[in-house]
Amino acid sequence: MQNDQRKPLTANCLMQTDLILGTAGHIDHGKTSLVKMLTGTQTDRLPEEKKRGITIELGYAQLSLPPYQLGIVDVPGHEKFVRQMLAGATGMDLAMLVIAGDDSIKQQTLEHLDIIRLLNLSTGVIALTKCDLVEAEWLEMVEEEIRGLVAGTFLANAPIIRCSSKTGQGIDTLKVALKTCCDRVASERQSASTGPFRMAIDRSFSVEGHGTVVTGSVSSGSITVGDTLEIQPAAVEARVRGLQNHDSSATGVSRGQRAAINLAGIHHLDIQRGQEICEPGHLLASTILLVRIAMLPNIVRPLRDRARVRFHLGTAELMANVRLLSGESIAAGETSIAQLYLNDPCVAVWNQPFVVRSESPVETIGGGVVLHPNVTLLKRPTPVDIRHAESMSSKDDLVRAAASVYLNAGDWRCSDWPRIAGVMDADTAYQQLTHSGDLVEIRLTQSRQLVTHSDRLAQIGDRIVKVLTRLHDQYPLRFNHPRNVVENEFSYLEQPAVLAAAMDILKNSKTINANVNTIGLDGRGPKLSKGQKVLLQWLLDEINGAGLEGPTEKILQSAATKNKDSVSELLKMAVENNDIIKVGSGGFYFGVGALDAAKKGLAAAMENSDGMTVSDIRQVLGVSRKFSVPICEYLDNAGFTRRDGDKRHLMPKSE
Hints:
This protein has 20 helices and 32 strands. 33% of the residues lie in helices and 28% in strands.
C-alpha cells in the first residue's frame, strides 16, 4: 500500500453514497479509454496490457458525482478473459455497456450483456463510443440495432449516449446519465450497509514494508483499522493493519467502495482470487448449494441433469455438477431449481446471483440466484422437499425462514437466518414460527436445545411407522418390539433426542404404544390361527395351574402336542400382554395371579418382622429353593422387597 498522505475519503464525505460501476463490452470498443476520459485514470497497469493495447486484468478507477462516489471496475473485453470479466462483475450496482459506433454489436457485446443481465442489476447506461469516426446516419442504424439487442433486459430503457474519448463529445451527458442511475439504485442498496462486512477478493499481493494486501469491492457492511476478519473458505483469521480506498488512506471502508486491505498474520500466497474476507462467523463454507437456474434464451443445447458446468460466484470460478430437483433437463429460456455439487467449497448468501458457463465449449449458458447456501443433500427429493425448496423464493420472510431450517445442513442457529434466508429480524421470526409449531424446540441438556422443522419430525415419524409395520409383519405374534431394534434403524440421526421427539408425537397421537424397552403400532397385534389360539390357551392354563412352581419354555415345548414352533413366540406375546411373567435367568413362567397372591402372603408375614431369609420366604410360599430364589430376585427388581445381607425387608408403599 502506498504511503499516501491525502486525507481519508471517509473523513469528509459523511453524506456520500458509494456504489460500484462496472463496464462491459467487446474488445477494442473503447472501455478503458472512456474510463480514462471520465476519471483521468489509466486502468491498464500491466506492461503486457500497455504493449498490446488491450485489457487483460481488471482495472480500477474512481468517479465523483456528488453525492455519489463511484468505484469503476474496468473489465477485459477479449473472449479469452471472460473469467476475469466475471470476477470484476461481482458487486456491481450499475453497469455501463460500451459499444463502438464504428463496429456495432460484436460477440463479446452479446456475452457481456448476458452476464450483466444474469447478475440482477436494475439499471445502467449504454455508451456509444468512437462517434467521431462515423456519420450520424450510421449511428442511428447502430442505435436501432442496440435497441433490438437490449429489448427485454434491464437496459431496455437505458439512455444511449453518443460519446468520444478523443474529442470529449458526450462525456458530460454520460456523467448526468450515470448520476440518474445512481439515484435509482441508491435506495435499493441502503440495507446492505448495515449487514456484516463481506468482500470478494479479486487480487492478493505483497507490498514492501506493509506485507499482504487484498483488494475487492465491498458488498456489505463496513470495517475499520484494527478489526479482525476471516478469510473464507479457508477459515483463517487476520487483522486489518491498514486500509485504502482508490489509493487514499482510510480509517474505514464500507459497502459500495473499492478497498485495499493490508492484513497482518497471513501470507499473500495463502490468499487467492475467489476467496472472501468477512466478519468472523458471517460466512460458512459449503460444497452443496440450492439454486434457481435460468437458462439464456439463445442456448443451443438444454442443460441436463448431472451436467458438469463452470460456476461463477463472486470472484470465484468452480467446477460443479448440476442435480435437478425435478425433470431431466432445462431448455433455453426455462427456469428450474437444482442442487449444485461443487468440487471445492465456496461461501454464499441467500439470493446471491451467479453465472453458469458450459464446461466445453466454454460459453455462458445461464445463471440464477442461490436459494440456500448450506443445504442438506436431497438425493431423492420428496414433494415436501420440493415445496420447501420453492419456498426459498417466497417474498414472505416467515415462509423463507421456516423452509431454510427444514433444508439446512447441520446445526441451525437463529443468527444464520440473515445468511441463509435473507431474514434480518431473526428474533421476531423465531418467536412466531415456534408459536405456530412450524419450528420445534428439542431439549438436549439443561443449557442446550436443538431446533428443527415440524416436517422433519413428521418424516421421521413416517419412517418409524414403516419400520414398525415391517417388524409387525415379520413377527406377527408380537404386540411390541424391542425399542433398541427400532432405534438402530435411525443411527444416521446425529441427535437421539430428535428420534425421541418424533416418537413422543406418535405416542401422543396414539399411533404407537411405547415404553422404556418396547414399542409397537397401536392396533397391531397377533393374528392367531385356530391352532395357535388353542395352544396359547393351553400354555396359559399350564402356567396358571402350576402356581409358584412355574414351568420353563423347554418344559412347555416338550409337553405341547401341536404347533411346537409357536411356543416361543406365544410365550413372548403373553408376557408383553401382561398375561404371564417371566422370572429369573432360568426362564420360569408364572401366572400374574400367583405372583400377586405371593406378594400378599409375604407382605403379611413381613409386616412385623425384622426381615426374612430365603429359607423363611420359601416356607411362607411353600416352594423349593429352585423357585424361591428367582421369585425373591424378581420381587427385589420389582421394588417390592429390599435385600440387606441375607435378609429381605418389605419396601414401604409409595404414596
